[in-house]
Amino acid sequence: MTSSALALGGVLAAEGSGDGFQAPGLGEFYPEVVANFSVLGIDFAITRITIILWVATLALVAFLVATVRNPQIVPGKLQYVGESGYSLVRDGIARDVIGPKGLPFAPFLGALFFFILANNLMAIIPFAQISPMSKFAFPLVLAAICWVMYIWIGIREQGAGKYFKDILFLPGVPKPMYILVTPIEILQNFVVRPFTLAVRLFANMFAGHMLLVVFSLGAVYLFQVGNYSIVFGPISALMAIVMTFFELLVIFLQAYVFTVLMGTYLNGSIEAEH
Amino acid sequence: MNILAAESENPLLPPLGEIIIGLIAFGIVLLVMFKFVAPRFEQVFRARREAIEGGIERAEAMQTEAKAALEQYRAQLAEARNEAAQIRDQARAEGQQILEELRSQAQEESARIVARGAEQLASQRQQVINELRGQIGALAVDLASRVVGESLAEEARRRGTVDRFLAELDDMATSGEGAR
Q: CA B50, A259, A200: angle at the middle one, nearest 5?
């Protein structure tokens, strides 16, 4: 809880100086550098968040490998958990959203879903309590990969000419409407989609973390201030717990939404629209 | 304080280092997924589907087999019944034929017996007639000789007379039979 402790330190310092409660700010997302190193001038500072990212990634890989180490027709508990998650993506998204040609994308979508889920879960796991997905870089990487992929698949499946023509001149639209529709479609397909994909996930995890930190630190502060505040302290603590459960919902939902949206984009690339 | 120093950073401007780290981390997950996890899961799904479908297929095959056997038994039963009916009909017809044959044979036999009896009767009658004729002739000659008192036995004329007389008798008998 170094980042929270850090903020707490700030709060206590503020208390000491009589400045009142200092709300946690963006500093939450820029924790102290544990170790500095750079390659070719690129800064690869090891921070709490990159460590959490690696812990989540390695834990996920270990979990996935464990689920399929000894696969059985009648699954054990661990295999059942892994299988349920993979089936959710494979059957619910790859097969049902993308369509009959979707099954080859199941491993990619599965990796996407599990990677986001594992990183998101760090948001409520004690001692980590921050999701790497609340750093814009990581959702952006995923969205960029998805962006390149659905455009590439669209070109591969429909041919570059037809794919871009269908986007520029949406079939079935009256010709004068192209003045309005074409810019929207271009913006939609090449800018808005990847940007919203990244921002949706990032903003949810960012805001979720801020909420949890504010309520937790608020509770601590209110308990320390004493007098009437001691009545509101438990309420703030309760809210922190409630928001943690809410966060759990958001964690699953955002991982699923990201994957489903990527599924629909892939569907649009594979099947000629309309 | 470093919190305040960090405030100036824009959260929407990601550092390049984090982007590369993110790529590597996701790349590892992708690699593990493609090379190891997904194929194993697909294998399990396939095995499971085969196990279920195989069971259903086996049951279906058994059912069709049982149905075919039942059909065969039914057909055989119907055939056997048909055959039995045919045999019965044939036997009845044969019996009828045998009966007819026996009846006609018996009729023939009886006719033959009757004919033989009639023949025998006729020959006996002829014999009796011949005998009687002889006797009657002798008696008549005897009687006539007694009446006349002299023997006409050796006379050829006398023989002619008797024969004529008897022929007359015969004629009377035959004409009487024809009239009857």
A: 165
Which residues contact residue A3 at a Cβ distance below 8 angstroms, ignoring those fewer than 6 apart?
A: A28, A31, A48, A129, A130
Cα(A263)–Cα(A93) distance, integer angstroms? 6
- Tokens representing A224 are 């320390």
What's the rounded Cα separation, in Å, for the pair A114 and A109?
Answer: 9
Question: With contacts defined as CB-CB under 8 Å, which chain A residues touch B46?
Answer: none
A68 close to B34: Cβ distance less than 8 angstroms: no
pLDDT tens-place string over residues A182-213: 888 888 888 898 999 989 998 898 888 888 88
Rounded-to-integer distance, Cα A218 and Cα A170, Å: 52
Residue of A25, A114, A135 with shortest CB distance to B7: A25
Pairing assessment for the beta strands A33-35 and A46-47 based on DSSP bridges: antiparallel
Q: Which of A119, A90, A153 is nearest to A254 (CA)?
A: A119
Residues on chain A touching B26 (C-beta within 8 angstroms): 111, 115, 141-142, 145
> A51: burial class by Cβ within 10 Å (0-12, 13-18, 19+)?
middle
Cα separation, A139 vs A75, whole angstroms: 33
pLDDT means over runs of 10, chain B (180 residues): 48 78 89 87 84 86 93 94 94 93 92 90 86 81 71 64 79 67
Q: Which helix (H) or strand (E) holds A240?
A: helix A229-270
